[in-house]
TrEMBL record:
Signal peptide location: none
Keywords: Cell membrane, Membrane, Transmembrane, Transmembrane helix
Cellular component aspect of the GO annotation: plasma membrane
Coiled-coil region list: none
Subcellular location: Cell membrane
Topology of this chain in the membrane: Multi-pass membrane protein
Domain ComEC/Rec2-related protein span(s) in chain numbering: 290-540
InterPro entries, per the entry: ComEC_N, Competence_DNA_uptake
Name of the protein in question: ComEC/Rec2 family competence protein
Pfam families recorded: Competence
Transmembrane segments: 20-38, 50-68, 89-109, 300-319, 331-348, 354-370, 400-418, 430-450, 462-486, 518-542
NCBIfam families given in the database record: ComEC_N-term
Length: 588
């Protein structure tokens, strides 16, 4: 008996998602391992021999599967007869070898790429001079982010830069090329830096005790000047002007709006922004700003102040609404969507979560252009693979891991959980609770690596602010896009956005302002393992209760209108299906 076409398509889609998710996890593990291996000085010196061996192994693994397939008899439609023909043991061995070898190839490729990338970083002149603490040096930097207020008391401003050249020697006569990312700290000269511009400055190089990166401390010695080598491109000058005009508009709001509207719209809180070249910052009381940030953190809704997938989903929804009314050519729609994503990425403050959401959005546009339906897990897996091969540093990024875990949790668990809760809570409320619980369950172990506290009221806080998030974000984006041309319209939209953020702040202060708002937890890896065990036990308890309830309803004769009982696939069968399809990734 043949299965319906829709069921076959759903099964094939689930199999593809399982395969790509498995490969993405393997690639992530390889990238993480490569960065750890490169930190070993002995292995770093052996890099010239290790990398060719890894690439040779990769080539061999990629060549072997076709050879193994050719050793088997021709594939037969009768699976049982085919197994008897080749033998059960040989069938299982040859069936599993291509899958294992493909995963090994992905692991070897990601490990080799990460090892090469990390070794090149450790051998960079900037890192070597920073590790030696050689004092002040003349460096040429390319500014890669807007300037923000420094978290250190010894400096006013900070920015992310790329060191392109560094001078060595006592007289700074030897200039060495470099390509090393760093963070610069300083006072007024640093506050005047412009994104995408090239500067020559004098700074002290050092290794950060926080993340092992390189820090540049701008020198305040007499005669230490900041020289503009190359002006920023017209694109980035335009984006900087748009951001400055938006911050000028939000500075007219009340204290709450000056703090939260830039955070909700651009991903940076108002007290961290710089709105003029002299280093003046938004007039926000420091104690008030710390209280707002603490309330949002303790209530579990601090993620709302980070630009992530929500902004890009709103943008794509708006573009689909327009496209459904004017009916342009699909290529025009795709190009417009990609351009809109690029503009949004440039207009907000850069972060790893922004890059993840942008790449995933572009992949979604390409999938739609090719006639494929949206598949969140597959798009996320390809996003992880591409970004880790392009920049292996994402394997160590908490922001990137947090963003990926939230998307994966929503894609895997939100829909089945909403289906279970829909009968009791209704469709709208079940969807909100399922989305929040799914994201929380997958991100909580990662959150414990950053801070060993669990926000108790995170779920009710997210439910209370959910009705106003999209509207407040949309008005904030409209204000951001119109502030350079129509400041009064931008102010009206920013004020409407501040109305939504005020409701968020009231909720955060109410739920996060008590001593019972957070619960302490074990720190480090032990806390993460314990949390995973607790979540698995809770999941098993919920599944057991649900099965008992389903059996009780079946015994009581609870039937559908046509006389049949409702069927819902259990979590165990879903996991078993995922494991089976992962093992059969390449059918021989």
């Amino acid at each position: 008996m043949k299965r319906p076409r829709a069921e076959c398509a759903s099964t094939e889609s689930g199999a593809r998602d399982a395969r790509m998710l498995t490969v993405a996890i393997i690639v992530w593990c390889g990238a993480w391992l490569g960065s750890r291996l490169a930190s070993d000085p002995t292995l770093a010196r052996m890099h010239a021999a290790v990398l060719p061996a890894v690439m040779g192994t990769l080539s061999a693994l990629l060549i072997c599967p076709p050879i193994w397939r050719s050793m088997l008899p021709a594939r037969s439609r009768d699976g049982a007869a085919y197994r008897r023909q080749v033998g059960k043991f040989s069938f299982l061995c040859f069936r599993g070898i291509p899958t294992v070898m493909t995963l090994c190839a992905a692991f070897a490729a990601s490990t080799g790429c990460s090892l090469s990338w990390s070794t090149l970083r450790l051998s960079d002149a900037t890192f070597i001079l920073a590790a030696q603490e050689s004092g002040a040096s003349d460096v040429t930097i390319h500014v890669r982010s807007p300037v923000t207020v420094s978290p250190l008391r010894s400096s006013k401003c900070t920015a992310d830069v790329l060191v392109t050249a560094v001078a060595s020697g006592k007289a700074h006569t030897l200039t060495l090329p470099s390509r090393f990312p760093a963070t610069i700290y300083g006072d007024d000269p640093v506050c005047a830096l412009r994104r995408d511009a090239l500067y020559s400055i004098q700074a002290e190089l050092g290794v950060s005790s926080f993340d092992g990166g390189v820090e540049l401390r701008h020198s305040t010695d007499a005669g230490a000047e900041t020289v503009l080598v190359a002006e920023a491109s017209i694109w980035w000058r335009s984006m900087a002007y748009v951001q400055q005009r938006f911050l000028s508009v939000t500075s007219r709001l009340g204290e709450q709006g000056r703090v939260l509207v830039p955070g909700l719209t651009m991903g940076v809180l108002g007290q961290e922004t710089i709105i003029d070249a002299s280093g003046g910052q938004v007039g926000v009381d420091a104690a008030y700003a710390r209280g707002v940030e603490k309330a949002f953190t303790r209530s579990g809704i601090m993620h709302l102040m980070v630009v992530s997938g929500g902004h890009f989903l709103l943008l794509s929804a708006l573009l689909r609404w327009v496209a459904n009314r004017i009916r342009p050519h699909p290529v025009v729609t795709a190009v417009t969507s990609v351009v809109a994503v690029c503009i949004l990425v440039s207009a907000v403050y850069p972060s790893d979560a922004v890059w993840r959401a942008a790449v995933m959005s572009v992949l979604g546009v390409v999938s739609g252009l090719l006639g494929r339906r949206a598949q969140a897990i597959s798009q996320l897996s390809w996003t992880v693979i591409l970004m880790l091969f392009a920049q292996p540093r994402f394997a160590d990024s908490y922001g990137f891991a947090f963003s990926c875990a939230a998307v994966l949790g929503i894609a895997l668990a939100a829909r089945p959980l909403a289906g279970q809760l829909e009968d009791m809570l209704g469709k709208a409320m079940a969807g909100l609770i399922a989305t929040t619980l799914s994201a929380q369950a997958f991100t909580l172990p990662i959150q414990l690596l950053i801070e060993s506290e669990i926000p108790v009221f995170s779920v009710p806080a997210n439910l209370l602010v959910a009705p106003v998030i999209d509207l407040a974000t949309m008005f904030g984006l409209i204000a951001l896009g119109s502030a350079w041309l129509l400041p009064e319209l931008a102010y009206a939209c920013a004020w409407l956005s501040s109305v939504g953020t005020s409701l968020m702040y009231d909720c955060a202060r109410w739920l996060g302002g008590t001593e019972f708002s957070t619960v302490g937890w074990l720190a480090g890896v032990r806390g993460v393992v314990l949390m995973v065990v607790v979540e698995c036990l809770l999941l098993a308890l919920v599944v057991s209760v649900h099965r008992l309830y389903a059996k009780a309803c079946a015994c009581a004769g609870e039937e559908q209108s046509d006389g049949s009982f409702a069927y819902r696939r259990s979590i165990r069968s879903a996991v078993a299906f995922w494991v089976r399809e992962s093992r059969e990734m390449f059918d021989v």
